[in-house]
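Notebook, student rotation project (T.W.).
Task set for the rotation: take a protein with a known small-molecule partner, predict the structure of the complex, and write up what can be learned from the model alone. Partner molecule chosen: pyridoxal-5'-phosphate. Sequence and SMILES entered below by T.W., checked by me.
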Amino acid sequence: MPAFTKCDVIWMNGAIVPWADAQVHVTAHALQYGTGVFEGMRAYDTATGAAIFRLDAHIRRLFASARAYEIELPYTFEHLCEASREVIRANKLENAYLRPLAFFDSHSFSVWPKDCPVTVAIIAVPGRQYIQGGPDHGARVTVSTVRRIELQTLPPYVKACGHYTNSVRAVQEAIRRGYDDALMLNAEGDVAEGSGANLFVVRNGTVITNDIDASIVLGITRDSVLRIARDLGLPVEIRPMSLTDIETADELFFSGTAVEVTPIREVDGRLLGDGNPGPISRRIQAAFFDAVHGRLPQYEDWLTYA
Ligand SMILES: Cc1ncc(COP(=O)(O)O)c(C=O)c1O
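Predicted structure of the complex:
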């Protein structure tokens, strides 16, 4: 996996600072205990310049994640939206991956984060393919022995830094087994999602995915795919998904900001169809890429120009 490409500047605590100056002290609470929240967003080139995809939904989810951990963001929604645009402009990026991050910073070693200052940063780097195989060829996945975190311990739908040790262990196991990513089950034994993406099943022409009660992050790409599928006239079902759904699927694909719409070509050595991305995955994917690049007027309100 290649390293990210450093950019010139980062937005940090209200100011644009050089990349090298965006530093955090080793005693930061979030580094000790994982007490940060984050977003992943993409900007895409369009005929009228770079546009951030569903910026408002991402920043809204950042505020919701922060609330879950009682992190009071010292900026307004509007300020963080404008800062996201600013960091794209300042780095002269077109296709970019953005990482808004807010966390409890350095104050004490108490687990109780009282009086920890809150640091907020928005990082942007050139966008690139996230997962091996990617949208063009499709990913190979394995069903993980690592179960998704569940509501009784940590709220799975919250994008908190510490929650991602769960995904890290799953993806490490998947790569060790020779696959590109993991399919994680939830505590009930149903299929939850990938290490950083939601899962869709296609069977008999119906597009199926699970809901928030399946221990998933309620993806913004998932929401976009559901709208696209309905607009294409495809029947949609939202319900728990079992391993039987995986075994009897005609097609499977991941959705997520990082993976975009990535077909799954193989699960634990079993090919989906002939191993090439299926026709419904391809139709949804094509519409998704047309939407993010501003080629479909009906989805124009998903784009915020930098
Ligand atoms: C665990 C997990 N599930 C699903 C998603 C997909 O969410 P989104 O489409 O909003 O990027 C992500 C990525 O943010 C994720 O980390």
